[in-house]
Amino acid sequence: MFHFHKALFLLVLLQVKVASAEEKIAPVDPLSASNIMNMLMGLGLVLAIIFFMAWIVRRMGGMQVMGSQQIKLLGGMSLGAREKVVLVQIENKRLVLGVAQGQVSTLHVLDGDYETNESSATDANSPFKEKLLQALSQTISNKTAKK
User: Which of 42, 107, 134, 137 could be a cystine partner for 96, CB 3.0 to 4.6 Å?
Assistant: First the structure.
């Protein structure tokens, strides 16, 4: 009987505490101007972080896949807003590719015994620009000789 009275007393005491806590809490409007501003500022911060990270990835040249060693991008040159010329090595062949919006075209194929390490691509005696100009001049001279 003593435990029953103790439990009843605790139950009444808890109800009084809950009732007094409910009286102190003022109702909050979820659509108040301060709540909306906090939400918009948080959303703006998240979007700013996303755009900043995308800008960094774009400035660094995108994500490079380390697993594929069969195809190597040796260099590239922008020709316009959406056009590029790139030099790609696949096994012992080098391809000069024209890249435009929605298409990739082979401009020239350079056959030969090229080293597979990257030191040949960054050789100080023959930079990419000179190789590209040489390959393009050979392609143009071959096309004009055929006509």
Answer: 107
